[in-house]
Every structure is written in structure tokens, then in C-alpha cells.
Amino acid sequence: MRELKEKIMSEGIVLSEHVLKVDSFLNHQMDPVLMKKIGEAFAEKFRDKKITKVITIESSGIGPALMTAYELGVPLIFARKRKSLTLNSDLYISKVYSFTKQEESEITISRKFIDCSDSVLIIDDFLANGQAALGLIDMIQQAKAQVVGIGIVIEKAFQDGGRILRERGIKVESLAQIASLSDGKVRFVEEALAK
Amino acid sequence: MRELKEKIMSEGIVLSEHVLKVDSFLNHQMDPVLMKKIGEAFAEKFRDKKITKVITIESSGIGPALMTAYELGVPLIFARKRKSLTLNSDLYISKVYSFTKQEESEITISRKFIDCSDSVLIIDDFLANGQAALGLIDMIQQAKAQVVGIGIVIEKAFQDGGRILRERGIKVESLAQIASLSDGKVRFVEEALAK
Description:
The structure is a homodimer. Chain A is an alpha/beta fold.
């Protein structure tokens, strides 16, 4: 997606070989027009899949996922990162390890919002090791619902997540695929292939 | 806002005299069409205020705030509930006590995203004791930016937050004002006045 890659090139900050900071338009400050275009792009890629629910994890996934759900005309569910006092019964629960935060958290979805009749599209802001996506897939499978695909805003293609998910036969669509963050520079997968 | 009140009446669950659960369309599952209408309603109420930024707190505020920011054509910033490894320098910091979760958390906004030239609209899903809004106001004032108003999806008018904020001279616009949750029933402020 051209607008997204341009935004990454102009505003993304390479913090290390593994960490790209995009807090000016996605992870802390959000560009609503770009989020809308991201939602349209995902809806376009998955429109033929008869999706009934979009699912993401709080917090940075909510923006792109909400815009996608709006375009597809279905509800969005955002998995909670831990139980709150008002959401404590009848939950699907899975564990997710965050390498960025170096901690394991529990993610939960209320059982009443997915069931075996659902066809679910997962949306998330980043795909790195795939831990978050695997946790969401685990809960969707607990509900006996179908995972019809995964839409990722920025895939760090040099990490394992994309391969693991695609080897499971899941359709993964990433709007920007980063081949490398070496030397403080963002290289997209297309550039790598063009060499 | 009629659609919102109808949704609260049909899907809201009164858990106690103080707690209304709206996780089927706002706090866990989100209705994107309703979020869009909420965004349009807030934009309408604050369109003459020359707003430059919309600010909320993760997570449930992000949906309504993103749609509002989209309508107003300005960026959204969501305050983080604690420091993450990739957002650790140059932060505005404030403390917020959550009566629902019975815990104090630190909320943060990166200094690079607000400054003295900003006119900020705060958007949040609930207003109860006003702690979250006061924390956001504190950070906006640290930035020497101007708070031009607060848009609340559901105000629990029987708690103190609305009064505290309005006594400070802040324009607070709530799309639904709840007068009472007694006897397991939602009563809106308009109904109370009509008696």
C-alpha cells in the first residue's frame, strides 16, 4: 500500500534491527485518514470471504480493525489484555508473549461474541513473531469459529510470524512487508526482490 | 443521541447501581456504524472550535475518538496506560485512579505530539468520577495546550465527574446522560427531568 509505505519512510523511526517506531501515525498518534484507507484496503482483500466478525487486540490494532469492520459492515471485537472487574465470566482465554514488552499477558474474549457460525478476520498493527495472532487464532478455534484470514498493517518479514501463519494455510495479507531494518534503514520486501 | 440511547436500553446490562456494561457495542465488541455516528455527533458539537488534536485514553476511547478525529480532519492521540519499552522518553505523565479496576495507573503522552499551539478535544467512552479526564487535562496543561472541550459517549450523571469538569468552565458534551441505575434499570437524565 503506497500511502502506508511513504508514511513509514517519512515518519518511521528505526530504533534497532528489530524495532520500528511508528507512533506518529499508528501506535500512539493515529492518522485517521490513513486508518480509513487501511480499512478500505483490507476490506477489498477479504470482501469475498463472507466475514461476520473482525477481531483484534487492544490497543494499537483497534484503529485499523475498526475501519476495516466499518467497511465490511460487521462488528469489531477487541481482545482484552487482562481480565477487568466487569468482564470476568465466560471468557475465551489465551496466553501471548510480547518480545517488545518482555512479558506474558493473558488475552480474553467474551464467549458471547463468537460462536461456531462466525467467519473471523483478524486485524493487527504489526506481525513479528506471530504470538498475538496465534493467541487470537487459539481463542477463535476454542469458539469453533473459522479464521478466514489475517490482515496486518506492517509485517516484519525478517521475523518468523508470517511464515508460521502461512504454513498453517492461513491467508495473511500485509499492507507493508519489511525485509530489513539494518543500518538504521527501512527496506521493504519488494525492494529486496528487485535487487 | 437517539441511536445510542436505544442501544443502551436494548443491550446495556446494569450490573449494579454504579456499573453499566455496554460490552456488546462499545467496550469489547464495537458497532462500527454507531461509532461513526458518534464521531459525527461530536464533530458537529465541536466543529467551530478550531480543534487541532483529539485525545483519548486506550482502549475503549479509541473507537469513538478515531471516528471523531476523522470527521474533524485532525490526528488522534491515545494516551498510554503505562510506559512501554518503545515509548519511554520525553513523556507527559499523569496518574489516574480507576474505581472500576480499583487501581492507580500512570498515563502518558509523548511530548512531541502536543504543544502550546494545540487546541485539544478530549473524547472518552465513559464519564463517572472524572479521573481519566482530569489526568488528560493535566497532561494537556503540562503541554501548555488548550482544552477546548470534552466529548463523552455515556455520562453517569449521578457521579461527580460531570459537575467537577463543568465547574472548571470546560464544555462537556455527553451523548447519553444516565440519571440512575437503581433497581436494575437505566434512567436517562431527560426522563428524570420530565417527571
